[in-house]
Amino acid sequence: MIKFIFVTLLVIFFIRMVAPILFRWLLAFFVKKSLRNGTFFYSNMNQPRPEPQSNGNGRRQGDVKIDYVPEQPDRKDFNGGQYVDYEEIK
């Protein structure tokens, strides 16, 4: 039982005190490494953008074609719906 409590307190101490410092150091290390390699900002800026490919029927891939737009019914005939009487129960 004492061993369990000791290990639990050790884990809690690690999570509260050591883990934030370790994570901050690891994050700084990876950001500095990315900045040195030039991959942190504008990693694919010099690469040309690929042109959308045609899918056989004359339209490019990703284009949207709308065939039918249904007419919207007039809302003038809406009279507010049905009302239900209710009695408050205390």
Your description of this structure?
The protein is mostly helical and 90 residues long. Helix content is 40%, strand content 0%. The protein has one helix and no strands. The chain has one helix at 2-37. It is flat and about 75 Å long. The two termini are 54 Å apart.
Query: What's the tally of helices?
Result: 1
Most strands sheet = none
Number of strands: 0
Secondary-structure element pattern, one letter each: H
Q: Segments where pLDDT lies below 50 for 5+ residues?
A: none
Rounded to an integer, what's the Rg over CA atoms?
32 Å
Cα-to-Cα separation, first versus last residue: 54 Å
What fraction strand? under 5%
Class inferred from helices and paired strands: mainly alpha
What is the molecular shape?
A: flat
What is the residue-averaged pLDDT? 78
Query: Share of helix among residues?
Result: 40-55%
Keywords:
flat, 90 residues, 1 helix, mainly alpha
Summary, kept brief:
By secondary structure, the chain is mainly alpha-helical. It contains one helix and no strands. The model has no long low-confidence stretch (mean pLDDT about 80).
Topology:
Elements: H1 2-37
